[in-house]
Amino acid sequence: MVSVFSERAAARGAWHPTALLGVLALWLATLGNLPLWLALWALPENHGWHAGFTLGGWAVVLLGLTLTFLSLWVWPRWLKPVGLVLLLTAAVASYFMQAYGVVIDPTMLANALNTDAAEVRDLLSAHLAVALLAGAVVPGWWWWRQPVRTVPLRRLLPRQLGVGLLALLVATGLLWLSFQDLASLMRNHKPLRYMVNPFNTVYAATRHTVGRAAQAQQPLLPLGQDATLAAGATPNAGQAPLIVLVVGETARAANFGLGGYRRDTTPRLARLRDEGQLVYFPHVSACGTNTQTSVPCMFSGQGRRGYDADVRQETLLDVLQRAGLAVLWLDNQSGCKGVCDRVPHFDTRTLHVPGLCEGDECFDEVMLRELPGQLDKLDPVRRARGTVVVLHQMGSHGPAYHKRTPANVKPFGPECTSATLQECAPDHLVNAYDNTLRYTDHFLAETIAWLREQQRPTALYYVSDHGESLGEKGLYLHGMPYSMAPEEQTHVPMVFWSSGGWPQHTNLAFHCLRQRSTEPLSHDHLFHSVLGLAGVQTAARQPALDLFRPCR
Ligand SMILES: [Zn+2]
């Protein structure tokens, strides 16, 4: 009797499932979207009474759309877990939007899903813990403990769908009233559209999953099946050329000493340039604003406009290998993103070399130490024709810039050592970042010094995968959608050095290359230029995009 009574009392205090859904929608539309509302409030066109009124209206629109969205697919069975996931997603997305100025789009999500443990460690901070506590743990605890009434489906279905429809009507009505304002706002401030929780993450996750599923079902498309070595490229014994392609990480052209930056971040490369065998290309744009896009794109031969991440296709390395050359990829970062799957590759972060590695991270010089041994393992028949090596740098990977440089290569100080970048004094942040470029200068110069000892034609081609924001316009890190990315994220440094002594038809005129360096170039040139340099003939190579062609 007592138990029946208390059950009834509990049922009376328990939530109707649709009402609890309304509470979740209310949280998501308001506190769960704090960065969005702060960004909207900070816009110059939003001020005064009118703005408060407009923002209030949009909050109701967002509440209506969220409630419609939730009422369509969140039924009692998965009400609690879905609520927890949405609270956590909104909290994490909000933190990164607020702390680094990033937005959540499909490539940013793909990037996040490919993040490894070391990268996550670099992002952890007390601020993140507070954000998670306030945005997910406390509301999540409350959410989980709420009693929910059992409502028969025949009664729940019309009620919940009715509420969803009503919410949709209110939202569209208000949207219609303020459409002019909203449309011009979204046009003028494109990042805002990627800031709406949880729709940004749901959209990105759907796009990502659909893309991956489509890709998994595709056969691998061949590329350059006709690839052969040009007759004149066949070397004499012991004179097989060696090309080292360095894929930089997060180096931006704006801070590159060779490009005229106020600080000398590249003194050793500058000396090599003065000797005449090194050219710096100051007008190079990247294919993407993150590793996940740029690295596959630059090896795809499709160019930025033609590149489709959902298409499975062979890469530059497959074409070089098919032509008969030896190919090797050494990786000191988060992997080659599928580019090196069918050629010999090695992850140098597994080496644990004392003095060069700590935990599962190594300074880039570890690749140079490993290179001779890995080259010896390659097929000698191929090596006798020529070798192309890719070194994938850790470079300037943020936000823990200070971890990228050994203690003896830190000319600029004091350094920012916090993962919460906006907490650091701007000049301390730039100091830590500039030190990473100084270390890249050191790494590239050491690689060139090693190449010089090889007694055969050698070349080094360096280009960064994308740039970086260091607090300009409130933005940090990288990964902005390309169309709205600031130049700091898309303008990258590129360097070419050669020992000379190449087979007759590839010998390069440096005065001509210096002339070419004044032209606008991009990642689109990499595929075709490396094929040209390696003496590979194929219909896949577009001579117009071979930056060396006019100089041979
Ligand atoms: Zn990158």
Describe it for me?
- This protein has 552 residues and is α/β, with parallel strands linked by helices.
- The protein folds into 2 domains: 213 residues, no CATH class; 311 residues, Alkaline Phosphatase, subunit A (3-Layer(aba) Sandwich), CATH 3.40.720.10.
- Helices cover 48% and strands 11% of the residues.
- The protein has an 8-stranded mixed beta sheet, sandwiched between helices. A two-stranded antiparallel ribbon has the order 1-14.
- A hairpin with a 2-residue loop joins strand 6 and strand 7.
- Helix 5 runs antiparallel to helix 8 and helix 12 crosses helix 18.
- The longest helix is centred in the C-terminal third of the chain and has 27 residues.
- The radius of gyration is 27 Å and the shape is elongated.
- The termini are far apart.
- The N terminus is likely disordered.
What is the helix tally? 21
How many E-type strands? 14
Radius of gyration: 27 Å
| CATH fold node name of the largest domain | Alkaline Phosphatase, subunit A
Which class of secondary structure composition applies to the elements? alpha/beta
- By CATH, the superfamily of the largest domain comes out as Alkaline Phosphatase, subunit A
Calculate the terminal CA-CA distance, rounded to whole Å: 97 Å
Classified by CATH, the class of the largest domain is Alpha Beta
- Biggest sheet character: 8 strands, mixed
Number of domains: 2
The CATH architecture assignment of the largest domain turns out to be 3-Layer(aba) Sandwich
Q: What is the typical, i.e. mean, pLDDT?
A: 91
Shape call: elongated
Q: Segments where pLDDT lies below 50 for 5+ residues?
A: 1-7
Biggest sheet: strands side by side, in what order? Answer: 5-4-8-2-9-12-3-13
Strand content: 5-15%
Bound molecules: zinc ion
Proportion of helical residues: 40-55%
